[in-house]
């Protein structure tokens, strides 16, 4: 298969997880080895939960060598879950997984995490096609929005990611409903009242009630930065998705 990375993107309520699993099944049916990385998987290069990105000039004073999980040109990355509570507290200012960490600006977050992306691409030795849910746009855009980034800054960040991943020959399958409101209404019905209330209250409390509208607008332009397949989703009808992913697997 020509593609080494298959990104599945779209707003909540578009069926990303289901489609990701379907693509892996189709690949396996074609005897193509595939690895599925759903959202929050530690292997996803935009999942930085409990990860401290420590500039090398600060690292010597922290005594956390045992928890290093990656070294790049300018940073050591430390899994805070492998540290004692005392050491984890000492690292809180470097926690890149905390989108409300006031000690890490959006510019520093971008510099730090782009080094992670570069290392992830350079060191990727798997023979499998990687199918990644929400790694290329959803997670990175959310993180930058929560850090107060402008649309221009977000576009620059995603453009940088797109350039970095080029050697792995990526393709993005974008699942699109008519607009953000229709997608979120469908997600509410599918995920339940508890999910809907938690998301709405959390976004409103932190001043991000327009998150999904803003993401929908950004994603329409950013999806074109790498090879892409736009799949339209209407209500419970995923027929366009099924046809296009079948074509991708059969002819790519």
Notes on the protein architecture:
By secondary structure, the protein is an alpha/beta fold. The protein has one domain (5-37, 107-251): P-loop containing nucleotide triphosphate hydrolases (Rossmann fold), CATH 3.40.50.300. It has helices spanning 16-29, 56-59, 85-90, 106-122, 138-146, 151-164, 180-191, 193-205, 211-222, 239-251; strands at residues 5-9, 34-37, 51-55, 68-71, 75-79, 129-133, 170-176, 228-232. The strands form 2 sheets. A 5-stranded parallel β-sheet has the order 2-6-1-7-8, covered by helices on one side. A 3-stranded antiparallel β-sheet has the order 3-5-4.
**Quaternary status:** single chain
Question: Into which percent range does the helicity of residues fall?
Answer: 40-55%
Tell me the strand percentage band: 15-25%
The CATH architecture can be named as 3-Layer(aba) Sandwich
Query: What structural category characterises the helix and strand content?
Result: alpha/beta
CATH superfamily: P-loop containing nucleotide triphosphate hydrolases
Shape: globular
Trace the largest sheet across and list its strands: 2-6-1-7-8
Mean pLDDT across residues: 94
Whole-Å distance between the termini?
6 Å
Question: What is the count of helical runs?
Answer: 10
Number of strands: 8
- Spans of at least 5 consecutive residues with low confidence: none
CATH class equals Alpha Beta
């Amino acid at each position: 298969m020509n593609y080494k990375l298959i990104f599945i993107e779209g707003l909540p309520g578009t069926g990303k997880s289901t489609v990701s699993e379907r693509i892996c099944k189709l690949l396996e049916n074609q005897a193509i080895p595939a690895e599925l990385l759903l959202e929050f998987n530690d292997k996803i290069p935009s999942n930085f939960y409990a990860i401290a990105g420590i500039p090398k000039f600060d690292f010597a004073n922290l005594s956390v060598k045992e928890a290093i999980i990656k070294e790049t040109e300018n940073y050591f990355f430390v899994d805070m879950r492998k540290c004692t509570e005392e050491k984890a507290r000492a690292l809180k200012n470097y926690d890149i997984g905390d989108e409300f960490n006031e000690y890490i600006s959006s510019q520093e977050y971008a510099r730090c995490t782009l080094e992670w992306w570069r290392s992830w691409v350079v060191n990727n030795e798997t023979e499998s096609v990687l199918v990644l849910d929400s790694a290329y746009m959803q997670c990175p855009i959310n993180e930058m929005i929560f850090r107060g980034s402008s649309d221009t800054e977000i576009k620059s960040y995603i453009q940088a990611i797109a350039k970095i991943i080029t050697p792995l020959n990526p393709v993005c399958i974008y699942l699109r409903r008519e607009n953000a409101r229709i997608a979120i209404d469908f997600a509410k019905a599918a995920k339940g009242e508890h999910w809907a209330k938690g998301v709405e209250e959390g976004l409103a409390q932190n001043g991000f009630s327009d998150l999904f509208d803003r993401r929908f607008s950004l994603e329409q332009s950013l999806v074109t930065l790498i090879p892409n397949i736009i799949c339209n989703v209407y209500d419970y009808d995923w027929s366009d998705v099924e046809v296009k992913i079948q074509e991708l697997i059969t002819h790519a």
